[in-house]
């Protein structure tokens, strides 16, 4: 079986943290449920430590179905770090709620499912991880039990369930064609299967993966959840699940579909072009900042699909995926942290933010320009890697599409940045709401700093990798 339980230590620590947090919250009084946040946070820190310790070791498989390699390690580290920041954001939002414990535990379980998505080397494990990453997120989206949150959760659930059924049909068809569910043997056997059958199975399989990734045509839930759910949950579901989804997509592209006679690359290229273009076009006229960020995440998904499309054309595609998801995750989370700190949802509400809270305004500008891909931020390095990978693989026209969409995206990010530095029609008193939200403000500033440092230190990161 190739058993290697220690290879699963970060995942075991997260599961133990979720179980311990649930048990502690069951017996703790309402005003003491904050201890669960500390338990879940400790589990995430321990998982980060275990990931760092395992990162220098050799790659391998645990129980022959779960990979412990660079793809999994980067996912573990990125998911654990971003989820830890989400736990801190959630503490201010859900403090003293009678269901406070459930929020922390559900976030941790969804993060665990996201990591398993990336490390799965077998389609059955992937399906289980998809369920674990999805069901807690459905509950979190409707946690407020208000009209908008309930509608968002229902749309989220129905789309996830429908596309999940299509994904299961794809898994079944792939098993029928290859007689295997683990990735590498399946890829070898599919080489002898008619390409049309493999293409059909790949399209069905992509339905569920694109839902988690937030890519076209499975993106419709993102703006509704981003606007209807709490800003903290919107930050989580538009950031963390994408990490595991894109790493899983890359692993499938490299291990299952790289050597088969299907039209995998053509499908992904079309989806990448449609996703980045439609995401940008839909964001142009958004006045609600959460919907703007939602469509921004759709466009970012399009950029991330590019290295997936060229996964079989060199090792640079893997570096592009890993660096881009890490840079995007911290930058997008920083932008949402500003929304949490200000508790304001329209572009006009941000007028005069630079005067009321200069540090928060600077963090917002860095994060938004980072999402554009402005040097020296991490997303800039990620986009350079994406462009290089596409060019080296012979997709020069796709690199041009990425550049055009990047330039176009500047418009709607500037629509948010410009009001920050203009005088508000009605001046709010000094020391207003922004000043009182210390934790979200700190996280926004920290995310902005990490984004810049990660971009500046990218050479060191690549050398270590």
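^ Assign residues to that structure.
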């Amino acid at each position: 079986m190739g058993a290697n339980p220690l290879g699963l230590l970060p995942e075991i620590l997260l599961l133990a943290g979720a179980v311990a947090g649930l048990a502690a919250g069951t017996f703790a009084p309402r005003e003491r449920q904050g201890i669960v946040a500390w338990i879940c946070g400790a589990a995430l820190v321990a998982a980060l430590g275990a990931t760092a310790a395992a990162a220098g070791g050799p790659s391998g498989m645990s129980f022959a179905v779960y990979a412990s390699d660079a793809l999994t390690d980067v996912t573990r580290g990125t998911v654990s770090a971003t989820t830890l920041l989400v736990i801190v954001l959630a503490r201010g939002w859900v403090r003293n709620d009678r269901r406070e414990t459930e929020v922390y535990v559900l976030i941790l379980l969804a993060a665990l499912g996201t990591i398993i998505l990336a490390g799965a080397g077998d389609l059955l494990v992937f399906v289980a991880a998809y369920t674990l990453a999805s069901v807690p997120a459905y509950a979190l989206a409707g946690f407020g039990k208000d009209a908008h949150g309930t509608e968002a959760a229902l749309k989220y659930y129905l789309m996830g369930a429908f596309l999940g059924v299509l994904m299961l049909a794809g898994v079944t068809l792939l098993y029928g064609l290859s007689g295997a569910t683990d990735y590498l043997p399946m890829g070898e056997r599919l080489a002898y299967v008619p390409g049309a059958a493999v293409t059909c199975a790949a399209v069905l399989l992509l339905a569920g993966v694109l839902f988690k990734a937030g890519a076209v045509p499975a993106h419709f839930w993102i703006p509704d959840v981003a606007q209807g759910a709490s800003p903290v949950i919107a930050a989580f579901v538009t950031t963390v699940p994408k990490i595991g989804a894109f790493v899983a997509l890359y692993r499938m592209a490299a291990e299952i579909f790289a050597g088969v006679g299907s039209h995998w690359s053509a499908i992904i290229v079309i989806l990448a072009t449609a996703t980045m273009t439609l995401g940008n076009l839909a964001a142009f006229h958004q006045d609600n900042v959460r919907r703007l960020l939602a469509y921004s995440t759709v466009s970012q998904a399009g950029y991330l699909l590019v290295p997936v499309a060229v996964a079989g054309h060199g090792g640079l595609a893997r570096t592009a995926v890993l660096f881009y998801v890490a840079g995007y995750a911290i930058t997008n989370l920083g932008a949402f942290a500003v929304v949490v700190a200000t508790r304001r949802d329209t572009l006009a509400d941000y007028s005069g933010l630079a005067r009321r809270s200069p540090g928060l305004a600077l963090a917002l500008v860095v994060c938004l320009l980072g999402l554009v891909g402005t040097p020296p931020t991490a997303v800039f390095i990620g986009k350079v890697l994406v462009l290089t990978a596409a060019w080296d693989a012979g997709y020069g026209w796709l690199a041009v599409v990425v550049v055009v969409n990047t330039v176009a995206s500047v418009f709607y990010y500037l629509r948010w940045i410009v009001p920050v530095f203009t005088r508000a029609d009605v001046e709010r008193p000094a020391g207003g709401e922004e000043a009182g939200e210390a934790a979200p403000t700190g996280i926004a500033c920290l995310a902005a700093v990490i984004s810049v440092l990660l971009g500046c230190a990218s050479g060191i990161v690549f050398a270590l990798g």
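The chain has a mean pLDDT of 91.
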